[in-house]
Amino acid sequence: MSTPASGAPTSLRRVAFATIIGTTIEWYDFFIYATSAGLVFAQLFFEPAGKEIGLLLSLATVGISFLFRPLGAFLAGHFGDVIGRRAVLVITLVLMGAATTLIGVLPTFAQIGIAAPILLLVLRILQGLSAGGEWGGAVLMAVEHAPADRRGRAGSWPQLGVPLGFLLASGVTALMTGVISPGAAYLEWGWRIPFLVSIVLIVVGFVIRRSVEESPVFTEIAERGKQSSVPIVQLFKNHWHLVLLAALVFAGNGALGYMTTGGFLNNYAINVQSIDTTAVLVAASVAAFLWFFSTLLAGYLADKIGRRTTFLIGFALQAAIVFPIFWLVDTGGLAGLYTALVLISTSLGLTYGPLAAWYSEIFPASIRFSGVSITYALGAILGGAFAPLIAQMLLETTGSTAAVSAYLLAASLLGGIATLCLRDRPGIPLGPDHEVEQATGATMFSQPAPARELAHTR
Known about the structure:
76% of the residues lie in helices and 0% in strands. The chain is mostly helical. α15 packs antiparallel against α16, α16 (307-321) runs antiparallel to α17 (324-350) and α20 (387-398) runs antiparallel to α21. The longest helix is centred in the N-terminal third of the chain and has 31 residues, at 9-39. The radius of gyration is 21 Å and the shape is globular. The chain crosses the membrane at residues 27-46, 53-76, 88-121, 160-183, 189-208, 240-259, 279-302, 309-329, 335-359, 371-395, 401-422. It is a multi-pass membrane protein.
């Protein structure tokens, strides 16, 4: 039987809307922390360590949360493959929102001492757990509902939540620093408002996600009693090499992506090049807007020219811009920053938009939630987790951005090599009747199952 992946237009629109809104809220929560880490957390929570060390510690908390994303992916992957995609999505949304809201009321070091940074780190870890489980569920809800010839575009829906979340986080922070609480007021109380806004967003996201039907692939799996009792064990026993290669693909995107979303480039433009804080945040918001459209375009291209080809174009562009982007910021002021961010946003979309569809098509149905979630989380650690910290350390050690650019070039080349090692599989049936086909031939080192049936009809 073919995967019942297509649905009525109204149903697909509902899935698209719920997926985009939910992931936007999740990533707003995640990025508002990274934005604040580069702007105020060093002063508020790590002040005794001094300016430079405090900034490193602040950026380190951004990365440490990534170490817990695999745990969130393990838990969400297991339960997503056993009890369903939708339930896990609702749980991760609530967990992320609760952690973000609590950061907004957290006392600072001056108020409660060493307990402040400890509690901050604990709440950031909870954000990491939630982010680790969120992405896989959102991806599968979108891709498994979609017709085979539109999986690339459908898979770009949850990807849009990242630039939209970053746009929202940067925009709200710019509003706070430039209009509502400029100067000392932002440091005193204004930084808290973006975190407290999360409690409103979480209610909206909860209602929307509860209204979406379960993925048709999981429904079919559950009806036939084909859930795996130990999906993670099966994943690493039979597909560890696939997990590693696919994780490296995302790592190539994440290193460059977290130069902006992780706060490094913002901090560099503000503190090293002395560009106005609000102006930098507005530029980041414009970049996120462009990132949205390049991601949407990449999903369309993934259906037209293939996931693999789209990725290779994106990685080639990344490799070409990693040195010029810092030259532009160093010599061009605010205009140079805008130009650099346009280049970054374009390349990031091309290496992010097709990811959801590609990941969904390389893992078997019964372990797919575990596969996409854990692979994504590992890729985030390898690429994005400590990218801002590594970049800051390279800058402080060498006194130049050339070392940072060399690091980003290596990450882009590694992502491109991993991309070449994977096969494109558009149109492969996603349902439980085709697990043998799904389990073979995903890499260039393995042979596809013979005489497979392309299920373009449902």
